[in-house]
């Protein structure tokens, strides 16, 4: 099978896992809102699926929701500071892995299209255009914008259609969260697991059990695509 495009997952794939980037920011978020961190963190986690599915299309809406659940009233200044913290965290989280940009350059030089498929809250697509990634990707699919998330098959088809490639001609590279690789395979894509520092976490059960192709670095994507040329 040939490869005409590569679609990457985001966290744990082209950037580190979100947990690594978020250290310290949750406390700042709680302080900005004047809410105890333990209470805020618990409620914020409870909103994860709703945020990832795009129920809240602004950061402010997410914050209003969590404050409502906690019965907390905040000022406009507190809201502004809390939004600023969330966006600062997001920018910090979108730091490329060391070999990411070099990999994208090589893929482009070889004539391959590059796409992104990410389960994420609305902060990611808000900040994405500011990042170094934006110039390298031909298309992006964010669950919060599409209001559907992996492993739903439809979102993989959306990603392929945005690149105008057939699923069978597309490599999907991800760290194996929520059985995303199996779903990619079911729609006809060529899935590859990239090992990450969080590969043994509970939400990455697929990464522990995966029997398909495995790589350890993004740079290995280049060799993989070269070996699948006509």
Describe it for me?
- The chain is an alpha/beta fold.
- The chain folds into 2 domains: 5-16 and 95-226, HAD superfamily/HAD-like (Rossmann fold, 3-Layer(aba) Sandwich), CATH 3.40.50; 19-93.
- Helices cover 47% and strands 11% of the residues.
- α2 runs antiparallel to α6 (76-93) and α3 (37-46) crosses α5.
- It is elongated, with a radius of gyration of 18 Å.
- It starts with a strand and ends with a helix.
- The mean pLDDT is 92.
- In whole angstroms, the N-to-C terminal distance is 8 Å
The CATH level-2 architecture of the largest domain is identified as 3-Layer(aba) Sandwich
Q: What is the mean pLDDT?
A: 92
Query: What are the secondary-structure elements, in order, as H or E?
Result: EHHHHHHHEHEHHEHEHEH
How would you name the oligomeric state of the polypeptide chains in this document? single chain
Radius of gyration over C-alpha positions, nearest whole angstrom: 18 Å
- Report the CATH superfamily of the largest domain: HAD superfamily/HAD-like
The chain-level structural class is: alpha/beta
What is the strand arrangement across the widest sheet? 3-2-1-4-5-6
CATH topology of the largest domain: Rossmann fold
Largest sheet: 6 strands, parallel
Number of helices: 13
Low confidence ranges: none
The total strand number stands at 6
Task: Just give the CATH class of the largest domain.
Answer: Alpha Beta
Q: Describe the global form.
A: elongated
Instruction: Determine the fraction of residues in helical runs and give it as a percent range.
Output: 40-55%
Number of domains: 2
Strand content: 5-15%
């Amino acid at each position: 099978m040939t490869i005409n495009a590569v679609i990457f997952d985001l966290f744990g794939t082209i950037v580190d896992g979100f947990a690594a980037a978020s250290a310290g920011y949750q406390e700042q978020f709680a302080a900005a809102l004047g809410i105890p961190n333990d209470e805020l963190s618990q409620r914020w986690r409870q909103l994860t699926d709703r945020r990832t599915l795009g129920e809240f299309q602004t950061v402010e809406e997410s914050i209003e929701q969590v404050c409502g659940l906690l019965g907390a009233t905040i000022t406009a200044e507190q809201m502004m500071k809390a939004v600023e913290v969330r966006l600062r965290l997001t920018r910090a989280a979108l730091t490329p892995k060391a070999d990411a940009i070099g990999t994208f350059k090589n893929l482009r030089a070889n004539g391959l299209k590059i796409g992104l498929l990410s389960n994420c809250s609305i902060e990611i697509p808000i900040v994405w255009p500011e990042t170094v990634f934006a110039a390298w990707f031909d298309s992006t699919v964010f669950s919060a914008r599409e209001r559907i998330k992996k492993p739903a098959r439809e979102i993989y088809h959306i990603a392929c259609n945005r690149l105008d490639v057939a699923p069978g001609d597309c490599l999907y590279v991800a760290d194996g969260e929520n059985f995303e690789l199996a779903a990619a395979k079911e729609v006809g894509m060529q899935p590859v697991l990239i090992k990450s520092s969080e590969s043994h976490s509970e939400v990455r059960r697929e990464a522990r059990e995966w029997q398909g192709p495995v790589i350890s670095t993004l740079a290995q994507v280049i060799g993989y695509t070269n070996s699948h040329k006509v």
